[in-house]
């Protein structure tokens, strides 16, 4: 069964006809040629496919494209529109927070989404008290909070130490170590 | 012999040249290469471990809208060379392990291919399989040699007599489980047959190795296979040599009417067809005097291979050179099973093979009442015990001493289970690390001056290792120019041949070719070349390799906390100190060391591919159940290195660093866990139940 939908991807309006079984990830990659989000497990277990969907970070392999008619999708490529890197991307470069780069677009989108969650007072599993008023703002996240909040994005190259440093840098609005 | 390079660009922490492409997701991996009208392949895998396929009903699959063809042994390309039992798929009705490819569906979309593959019904004549590894089997046998061409067994002196006469004897059995490489990018190949032969976009650690392996299988001259692989999403050995999925997709591309066919393995499929680290059972015997000086070392390893293709891991090989002892024996024995084919995984040999002995050294230190660092220092050999050659720059003791200083080892109370931090038992541990410094001769680099740039090309690979960046630095120094004056090309068989990105040999092997080409280029064309000036040069053999025992060394320190009621274990601090010759790019090198240590942490605490021998299947075949370290698992971790240049390691003075970071990490953590809890766990991974 097929359906016609509109997606707004990295600022472009894209109309497409899709198999209703198609995930948002496959729609982006195989129908629209938007390869920035990666497929690492296709099960929502690795986070390589993370995009910002209507502003929130999601595993795009767990979302059916047909259910997202009219949605706004931002990938790591879109975060750098205009040739200027997003501060999170600049921090990943500054801290060498990646090696093979395959999980990296997902890590970047996840970090952007995560920092917004923190600023929206959303607590994490390690937030003492677990209430919105206990939740640190993005700039106040400690390493434990960053690690916990970034644990949905696996990195087999093992860049976590530098990913935490990059997110810390971006959260603080700093400009490199 | 190529002259040593003067380091100008080398040694600087420049940013990865592929960095912007990586953080935006625009670096094209295999699946993302531009092809016209691709078709999609979904494999059909055997659901038995041993037997014969008696029938494949493809009618329902073929009837599905959008299916282009169903591939089975009845319409599969006949292979010219079927001597590699892993690659020789779809040639007969035999099934050699569960998950082996027996067919596939080619369709217009991935969804249709997957649905149709599920509609293919297969009947089997099933035979009783054998997938149980044990050291007690009576059919264990000795391979002719072990991986990398090492002898299966070695003996020096009379180890049995030395053990019988030793004041202190450690005699323990250690086990490491099967582990899966699990690069984040699944194994991916896009194949197309053209008038010029077979074109592959492949995720591989060596484009030239892929075509050399495939050419005889397909009966094609090597020039008729073109492989492109500019960016690779991790490999860790599992993309070292082509696995059977490359054959399957090439077969499928013969049935697609000339269209390119795309195949990316699912995460689950990776667990049966893309290689893995064999489980090992290691009996380690140490004989020593009361001061901990070794008189005998015996390391007997039992591991598994697949009946359809032999892979014998060189697990006991590091024991042959690590410590001094007059009497020594190492052996490898294989259980030949109806299981998927094991292969390389980061530091095959050294990684599992340094677990048993390095925990045994900790046990020896305790038995003798000697500091674990001191017991290692006391057994430092003056020459390589196996070859009798001098070591080139053996700095193990310096790594241990520097690590001890930085980690705060001197204050350590050696008694186990005496430190409680809330409900957490705390402890520290140390282990040695080593990896051979090899380079492979014969890589060729081409330099062409054009557009005001030195265009340097070599068919090398960047798996996240930093090749794009560090080879550019090497080329800049080889030509005496700035990094910005060099334009590097890698990852394509159209470029000069390069050795594989494996065995931590890439940088030294390719860098030597570039150094040689740079030297020759400057001699021939001077420093003001003209547009179009071009030459190629091959890396000569490193003459020092025949005179010296060449190895990198390291020391791994770990602090762990184990919850006294739940057994939960956390690695609160880790420090690696390495001696690896010149570090060409400190920024990327630190990342690579930390990455190895992180994977070692996974080996220590998490990773275990669980074989259910009743069915011959790895039951935890995804990231939910095969846990690799996540961000929250890695706490305070750092890696440093000795400032050195290895004058015997070729013109770069650098030894490889891709693997040593994982070696010894699990032993350091296990030793720390013992120090914390008083419970000596000899079987990886260190799961909570083992501390209760």
UniProtKB/TrEMBL annotation, chain A:
Pfam families: Fer2, Fer2_2
Domain 2Fe-2S ferredoxin-type: residue ranges: 3-79
Keyword Metal-binding: yes
PROSITE patterns for the chain: 2FE2S_FER_1, 2FE2S_FER_2
Keyword Iron: yes
Keywords: Iron, Metal-binding, Oxidoreductase
Domain of life of the source: Bacteria
PANTHER family: OXIDOREDUCTASE WITH IRON-SULFUR SUBUNIT, OXIDOREDUCTASE, IRON-SULPHUR BINDING SUBUNIT-RELATED-RELATED
Protein's UniProt name: Oxidoreductase
């Amino acid at each position: 069964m097929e359906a016609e939908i509109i997606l707004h991807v990295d600022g472009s309006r894209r109309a497409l006809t899709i198999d209703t079984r198609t995930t948002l990830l496959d729609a982006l990659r195989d129908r629209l040629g938007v390869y920035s989000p990666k497929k690492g497990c296709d099960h929502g277990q690795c986070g390589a496919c993370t995009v910002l969907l209507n502003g929130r970070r999601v595993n795009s392999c767990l979302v059916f494209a047909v259910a997202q008619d009219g949605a706004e999708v931002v990938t790591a490529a879109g975060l750098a529109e205009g040739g200027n890197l997003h501060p999170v991307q600049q921090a990943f470069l500054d801290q060498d927070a990646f090696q093979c780069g395959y999980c990296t677009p997902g890590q970047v989108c996840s970090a952007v989404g995560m920092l917004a969650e923190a600023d929206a007072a959303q607590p994490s599993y390690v937030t003492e008290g677990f209430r919105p008023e206990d939740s640190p703002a993005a700039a106040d996240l400690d390493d434990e909070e960053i690690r916990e909040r970034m644990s949905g994005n696996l990195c087999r190259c093992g860049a976590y130490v530098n990913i935490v440093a990059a997110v810390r840098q971006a959260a603080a609005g700093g400009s490199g170590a | 012999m190529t002259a040593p390079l003067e380091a100008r660009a080398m040694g600087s922490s420049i940013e990865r040249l592929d960095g912007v492409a990586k953080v935006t997701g625009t670096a094209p991996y295999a699946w993302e290469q531009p092809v016209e009208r691709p078709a999609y392949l979904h494999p059909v895998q055997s659901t038995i471990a041993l037997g014969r396929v008696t029938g494949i009903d493809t009618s329902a699959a073929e009837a599905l809208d959008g299916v282009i063809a169903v591939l089975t042994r009845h319409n599969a390309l006949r292979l010219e060379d079927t001597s590699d039992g892993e690659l020789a798929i779809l040639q007969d009705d035999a099934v050699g392990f569960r998950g082996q490819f027996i067919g596939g569906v080619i369709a217009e979309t991935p969804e249709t291919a997957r649905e149709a593959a599920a509609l293919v019904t297969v009947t089997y004549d099933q035979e009783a399989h054998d997938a149980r590894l044990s050291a007690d089997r009576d059919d264990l046998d000795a391979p002719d040699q072990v991986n990398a061409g090492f002898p299966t067994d070695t003996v020096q002196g009379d180890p049995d007599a030395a053990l019988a006469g030793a004041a202190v004897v450690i005699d323990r059995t250690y086990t490491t489980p099967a582990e899966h490489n699990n690069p984040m990018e699944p194994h991916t190949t896009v194949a197309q047959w053209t008038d010029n032969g077979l074109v592959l976009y492949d995720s591989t650690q060596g484009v030239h190795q892929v075509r050399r392996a495939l050419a005889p299988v397909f009966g094609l001259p090597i020039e008729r296979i073109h492989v492109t692989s500019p960016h690779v999403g991790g490999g860790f050995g599992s993309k070292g040599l082509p696995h059977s999925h490359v054959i399957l997709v090439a077969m499928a591309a013969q049935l697609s009417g000339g269209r390119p066919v795309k195949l990316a393995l699912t995460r689950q499929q990776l667990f049966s067809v893309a290689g893995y680290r064999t489980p090992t059972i290691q009996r380690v015997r140490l004989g020593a005097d009361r001061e901990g000086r070794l008189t005998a070392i015996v390391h007997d390893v039992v591991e598994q291979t697949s009946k359809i293709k032999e892979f014998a891991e060189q697990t006991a090989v590091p024991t042959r050179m690590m410590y001094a002892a007059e009497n020594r024996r190492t052996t490898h024995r294989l259980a030949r099973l109806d299981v998927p084919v094991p292969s390389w995984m980061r530091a095959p040999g050294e990684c599992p093979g340094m677990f048993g002995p390095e925990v045994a050294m900790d046990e020896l230190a305790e038995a003798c009442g000697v500091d674990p660092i001191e017991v290692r220092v006391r057994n430092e050999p003056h020459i390589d015990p196996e070859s009798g050659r001098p070591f080139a720059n053996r700095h193990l003791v310096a790594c241990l001493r520097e690590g001890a200083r930085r980690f705060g080892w001197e204050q350590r109370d050696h008694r186990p289970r005496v430190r409680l931090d809330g409900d957490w038992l705390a402890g520290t541990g140390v282990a040695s690390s080593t990896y051979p410094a090899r380079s492979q001769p014969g890589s060729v680099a081409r330099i062409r001056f054009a557009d005001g740039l030195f265009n340097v090309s070599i068919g090398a690979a960047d798996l996240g290792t930093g090749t794009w960046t560090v080879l550019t630095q090497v080329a800049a120094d080889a030509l005496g120019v700035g990094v910005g004056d060099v334009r590097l090309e890698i990852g394509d068989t159209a470029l000069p041949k390069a050795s594989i990105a494996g065995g931590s040999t890439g940088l030294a092997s390719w860098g030597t070719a570039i150094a040689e080409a740079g030297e020759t280029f400057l001699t021939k064309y001077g420093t003001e070349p003209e547009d179009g000036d071009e030459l190629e040069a091959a890396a000569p053999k490193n003459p020092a390799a025949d005179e010296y025992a060449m190895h990198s060394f390291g020391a791994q320190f770990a602090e762990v906390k184990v919850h006294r009621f739940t057994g939960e274990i956390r690695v609160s601090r880790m420090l690696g100190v390495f001696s690896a010759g010149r570090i060409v790019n400190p920024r990327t090198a630190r990342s690579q060391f930390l990455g190895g240590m992180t994977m070692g942490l996974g080996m220590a605490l998490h990773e275990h591919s669980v074989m259910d021998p009743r069915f011959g299947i790895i039951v935890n075949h995804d990231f939910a159940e095969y846990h690799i370290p996540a961000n929250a698992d890695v706490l305070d971790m750092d890696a440093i290195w000795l400032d050195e240049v290895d004058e015997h390691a070729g013109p770069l003075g650098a030894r490889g660093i891709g693997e040593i970071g994982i070696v010894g990490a699990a032993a350091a953590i296990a030793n720390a866990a013992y120090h914390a809890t008083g419970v000596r766990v000899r079987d990886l991974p260190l799961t909570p139940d083992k501390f209760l």
